[in-house]
Amino acid sequence: MLARILVPVRGDGMGETVLAHAASLAHRHRAHIIVAHCRARPEDMMPQGLSLPSFARANIVAQAAELANQEETALREALHKMAGALDLNETDRPDGSHASVQFIEEFGRMADVIKHNGRLADLIVVAKPDRDRNLGTNALKSGLFQTGRPILMCQPHAAVGPQFGAHVAVAWNGSLEAARTVALTLDLASAAEKVTVLTAGRGEHHTASPEDLVDYYRLRGITAEVHRFEARNPGLALLDKTVEAGASLLIMGAYGQSHERETLFGGNTQSVVDKANIPVVMGH
């Protein structure tokens, strides 16, 4: 079972849908959610390359601190309302009897806040990056490549159904990334009522087959079935096949630059990040 879920927030309006997805899983696992707010350091607000007199610097620091205080107050009030609406107990001492949440704040960059808190989280939940507004990419990258933990990418402003997480689809091609993601997400698969293994083509040579994965799951008390498909773009097809299977969540390994250099995350992974219209859990 999941025990700790990290939800990093930055006051960009995405907190509500991200927390709703986290809360749905927290109720399924009786987990504790940590909402981590990234507070900018005053020195980071200073104009770069511009020499300012001491009084001007002091004014900028004071204004930045006041804005940060206002943002923190607003976020705490919003979290309190959302916690009530989502039936989450507000506590910093969870006992595992009910889904719970707490708010913390740290100074620094969002990537550092995620790295610090994410390495001891069972799952990190973020919104899908918004390329037009240049928001969210660093959070996703930090969660994937700096924590060693699985990360759930959910759609902005998407409603969370009561069966979220009840049927999960697991992408399998026999790769190292896929194998590690399977190991990282056993709690999600164990708590699901149905698991579908999606595989395109024949996968890698001399590696575990989808049927081998089904046998592995069986040893863990998880019943899974295999669904094979052919596609020129497996990344996009995975999204469609997940919906066709009736799953509410896709689990897949994520490739990075070192594996496929043509894109930020790797070809198939980038396709999923760009086009996903369903929640996706990725591991690296």
UniProtKB/TrEMBL annotation:
PANTHER family: STRESS RESPONSE PROTEIN NHAX, UNIVERSAL STRESS PROTEIN HP_0031. It holds the Pfam family Usp. Signal peptide: none annotated. It comes from Roseicyclus mahoneyensis. Residues 1-128, 165-282 form the UspA domain. Belongs to the universal stress protein A family. This is Nucleotide-binding universal stress UspA family protein.
